[in-house]
Specification:
A hairpin with a 4-residue loop joins strand 7 and strand 8. The chain has one domain: Beta Barrel (Lipocalin). Strands 4-3-2-1-9-8-7-6-5 form a nine-stranded antiparallel beta sheet. The radius of gyration is 20 Å and the shape is globular. With 154 residues, the chain is mainly beta. Helix content is 12%, strand content 44%.
Length: 154
């Protein structure tokens, strides 16, 4: 039995409404609890942080000397999710942060999602011999990537 035109319109509207729904497990930019707690899926080469693992070396307040920006990593969960703050000098919203190991490296990733920071991403590696975080900063508005370095604040 063929569908009536009215039934086809209803079915189409239902499908459109369903397709626009967001998944509950994705990063939520505006949910305060999800800013630092929601993280992207780990790359296969990444391993979650184990209790007492060396990833704890990434905790602390880090200064980016070229601009005075502060990255503060306060907690690191066993699954690699981290709680982080970013200041320029006022707080900038952090959408998510992770600290994980990749082989012998400790990798830090942070996404900023605020006014003038629409999806800006830091991808950093901890250098134990220099006690620094080095890597890249993707400036989303300009679609440019910069080499950056953070030094630990005392």
């Amino acid at each position: 039995m063929p569908f009536s035109p009215r039934a086809l319109v209803r079915l189409t509207l239902c499908l459109l409404a369903f397709s626009s729904c967001k998944r509950a497990d994705g990063p939520a930019a505006d949910a305060p609890a999800a800013r630092a707690a929601t993280a992207p899926k780990a790359a296969p080469a990444s391993a979650p942080a184990a209790a007492g693992a060396p990833v704890a070396k990434a905790k602390g307040r880090w200064l980016r000397p070229d601009g005075g920006y502060i990255l503060a990593i306060t907690t690191i969960e066993a699954d690699g999710r981290a709680e982080a703050g970013y200041f320029n000098p006022n707080p900038i919203k952090v959408a998510w942060a992770t600290v994980k190991t990749e082989g012998a490296d400790i990798k830090v990733a942070v996404e900023l999602r605020d006014q003038n920071y629409p999806g800006c991403i830091y991808k950093l590696t901890y250098l134990a011999d220099k006690d620094r975080l080095v890597g890249t900063y993707f400036q989303a508005q300009m679609q440019q990537t910069y080499e950056v370095e953070f030094v630990r604040e005392p």
